[in-house]
């Protein structure tokens, strides 16, 4: 009896423990949720998974819409993944366009809106005075290069290279941009003169003496070329040639007659079945070669029978 009581008590205690383990978990607090999301965000950025990091930023902003760190990180990731339209929309929707003027100017520059980007860069320089960020100077140099102001671009790149470690990656990028700006500037100053000197004398004199063509004549010739191109009939497509590997032996394309299309049908199902057949004779025999030869060779009857056609009376009988 004591063993039965102990077994019942142990089973009841195990049931109570199972009920305690099945209780639902308590929901996480807001700081704990944000801590976990930011931990995964840092891991995604360190691993280079920028698209997943943007999604994590969206989760953080849904939980805490006024989180400045998440908003700034998302904006940086959009620029890093070249989503400039989305970055520009985010800046304009945030209501902090003045605080994020550099990001807005960079997005406009990458979207090839140099005029608006130049206005923003000039306003940033006026607001900050001498305390200008390196990013603003780099953006101004890139804008000057794209606008054709190569001399200003060379000056800015030289200024940036003086304040950076020569072993850094940024130094090599700026050096590449500086060489490109130098090449354009040298061509404008002296390169085109050397190119003109290399041309024949007759061509250079004609280029110097002839005035540039008027704009209206250019439009007229362009319209004339378009009209002539539209009136010319398109050339017929080339005939498809038969590959020699697909032609059977002994067949000449265009000379050998094509095969019978009904060659796969039975003879009784073909359209030519029964044409050109001879009629049966009066005896009911078919028009075979043997019967035809016999009928043509048979003599015509004259009304009397000859002795040769009479049947003999018997075998071996002699006439008297």
Automatic annotation (TrEMBL):
Any one GO cellular component localisation term in the record: signal recognition particle, endoplasmic reticulum targeting
Gene Ontology molecular function, alphabetical: 7S RNA binding; ribosome binding
Region (Disordered): 1-24, 225-320
GO biological process: SRP-dependent cotranslational protein targeting to membrane
Cited SUPFAM superfamilies: TPR-like
Compositionally skewed regions (Polar residues) per UniProt: 302-311
Keywords tagged on the record: Cytoplasm, Endoplasmic reticulum, Ribonucleoprotein, Signal recognition particle
Biased composition (Low complexity): 1-15
Signal recognition particle SRP72 subunit RNA-binding domain mapped to chain residues: 237-273
Superkingdom as given in the UniProt entry: Eukaryota
Subcellular location: Cytoplasm; Endoplasmic reticulum
Regions of compositional bias (Basic and acidic residues) in chain numbering: 260-270
Family recorded in the similarity comment: Belongs to the SRP72 family.
Name of the protein this chain belongs to: Signal recognition particle subunit SRP72
Species whose genome carries this gene: Hypsizygus marmoreus
